[in-house]
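Protocol step 4 of 5: obtain the predicted structure for the target chain.
Materials: sequence only (see below). No template structures provided, no constraints applied. The aim of this step is simply to have a reference model before the mutagenesis design in step 5. Sequence pasted as it appears in the construct record:
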Amino acid sequence: MRDFVTKNSYTPPFTVITRHDCIVVHILQAIEQPFLMAVREVLGHKYTAYLDRLYRRVIHFILGMLIVGYKQTYNASARAAQHYDDSNN
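Step 4 output (structure tokens):
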């Protein structure tokens, strides 16, 4: 999963990856297995190897987009806080 996120995540310009970002990635990665187990349980015998590959791609895409959104929001709020600090000094 980490390789997927690293290779397929869009990183906007001026993005700084912090330890906090790594923690968020780790937390989101923890969602993958429970999601796949839930899908497997719901579909039962209809859950095939093809569906396993498909749902793995789906959850990787969703988690990748969540990480991208988090990074963009976090960086935007950090820039806004810096601008606020600069304007008040």
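Step 4 remarks: Residues 10-15 have pLDDT under 50 and may be disordered. The chain has four helices and no strands.
Proceed to step 5.
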